Amino acid sequence: MTGYAHPEVLIDTQWLADRLHDPDIRVVEIDMSLEIHQDNHIVGAVFWNYLTDLFLPNFRLNLDPKAIAALLSKSGITPQTTVVAYGSYPGTSAWVFWLLNLFGHQNVRVLDGGHQKWIAEGRPVTAELATFPATRYEAKPIDENLRVLHDEVRKAIGQSDRAILDVRTLLEYRGELFFSEPPQGEERAGHIPRSLHLEHLLALNEDGTFKSFEELQALYRSQGITPDKEIFPYCAVGGRSGFVWFVLKYLLGYPRVRNYEGSWNEWSRLPDALIEIDGGTARKRHIPKN
């Protein structure tokens, strides 16, 4: 893991295996259902349902500090606890790194290779999830330096010193899919005008580990995503873009990166927000006159 800008935040499976019973380490499994991993939970892991624990019904992240404090408290986490998260989504650990840092919890480590590598190596798993005595965690106010709001994203369109980075799949970027489903209701398909595209999974090797510093550097520079610019990554609901925020800021050392966690879920519904479809002309949503 040498060569990364901040290698100390990235751990390998052996590091975690050596500390599974450390009371100051909390492994967190994050998914939409307990059934996804069934008998393959990492030993000592607690469970968070991201649909109900982390998101609101409209699929916006729940950014109420009291809500995240309650979640950390019931998981037996203190400000000194080191959190290691994983899930079926590649990059869960890196996304949670951004989310917990947003509320001031900096004791987070990213598991290189995630659950995929853990299972491939035959590491200890169990059918039972863990529980711990509750704590009284107090979350800090949101660190606004880690996120960007839609008004600033709008102003960044076409600015040479800023790059809006779409990290969704190519089909989503082209406007053929919205979060893996056809757009419905007020949703619109497409992408933010002038945004660059680079799918988040391209940062990973086939075994789920991160590509080397040199490979990542070449990957992002090839698309004009350079450290002299301020980068605003976005996806559908802020998770994949949180992953890319971690890659750019902590692995490559880019000085100015902020996650647009509102992402396409928000932008596609703004009545005056411009969109492009597969390179087409930017357009607003038509609003009928009364």
Give the helix/strand layout.
Layout: E1 10-11, H1 13-17, E2 25-31, E3 41-42, E4 46-49, H2 50-54, H3 65-74, E5 82-86, H4 92-102, E6 108-111, H5 114-120, E7 125-126, H6 150-156, E8 162-166, H7 170-174, E9 196-197, H8 213-221, E10 230-234, H9 239-251, H10 263-267
Parallel strand pairs: 1-6, 2-4, 2-5, 5-6, 8-9, 8-10
Antiparallel strand pairs: 3-7
Helix pairs in contact: 4-9
Detailed description of the structure:
By secondary structure, the protein is α/β, with parallel strands linked by helices. The protein folds into two domains: 7-142, Rhodanese-like domain (Oxidized Rhodanese, domain 1); 147-267, Oxidized Rhodanese, domain 1, CATH 3.40.250. Helix content is 27%, strand content 13%. It is built from ten helices and ten strands. The strands form three sheets. It has a five-stranded parallel sheet with strand order 1-6-5-2-4. A three-stranded parallel sheet has the order 9-8-10. It has a two-stranded antiparallel sheet with strand order 3-7. Helix 4 crosses helix 9 (239-251). The termini are far apart. Residues 285-290 have low confidence and may be disordered.
